[in-house]
Fold this sequence. Notes:
By secondary structure, the chain is an alpha+beta fold. The chain folds into two domains: 3-115, CBS-domain (Roll); 123-199, ACT domain (Alpha-Beta Plaits, 2-Layer Sandwich), CATH 3.30.70.260. 30% of the residues lie in helices and 26% in strands. The chain contains six helices and eight strands. The chain has helices at 20-30, 49-52, 78-88, 107-122, 137-148, 181-190; strands spanning 34-39, 42-48, 92-97, 100-106, 126-132, 153-161, 171-178, 195-199. A four-stranded antiparallel beta sheet has the order 6-7-5-8, with helices on one face. Strands 1-2 form a two-stranded antiparallel sheet. The protein has a two-stranded antiparallel ribbon with strand order 3-4. The longest helix is centred in the middle third of the chain and has 16 residues, at 107-122. The two termini are 32 Å apart.
Amino acid sequence: MQVASWMSSPVHTVVPATSAADAVALLRRYRIRHLPVVDGDRAVGVVTDRDLRGVAPGTAVSTIMSRPVVVVSPRTAIDKAARLLFDRRIGCLPVIDDGRLVGILTQTDAVAALVDVLRYRVGGRTAEVTVSYLPEAMAVAHRAIRGLGGEVARLVAATVDPLANGEPPRRVRLQIETREVSRVVEALQAAGLEVLASGVPDDRRSRGEIE
Length: 211
């Protein structure tokens, strides 16, 4: 998956001489947090809402913008772009193609993209697996599922049943994103948990049945 699929375009920009007051007005108008600073077609800096806090209204953004600019191409892999954002501790990446600014990728965009990638790899279906209650059942289940790898399964939520009415807990319901319920069941059983039921809730054939 490439940056082109997740970047925002067209991009709202300012020039080095833009005042802080005008930059703030743009951020508020479009409800954004980052403004690339351009000189012609060339990105020369980035100014953010944080940079502009407490700055005198007439201050030129050239004096407060971040530089040099870390940029990516529309064809950059999204995981590489996300790594750049994390490693450099920056909030956005201007996207440059043939020397021109064509988009912007923010931290929020990158996180959304990686979540989407994970859902695609796992399969995007949430299975429900019920195991007998043990005080450590949730921790054991988490370790067992994590051991399968994120591309096979991911634990989304775990709840104890029943939760109230003074009754002792009898089971733990696990919601798991996976395409391979049988492997999840095997891993849970190998970890010492008793599996009572498993299946994909929207699949009537598998509801309440161990696959």
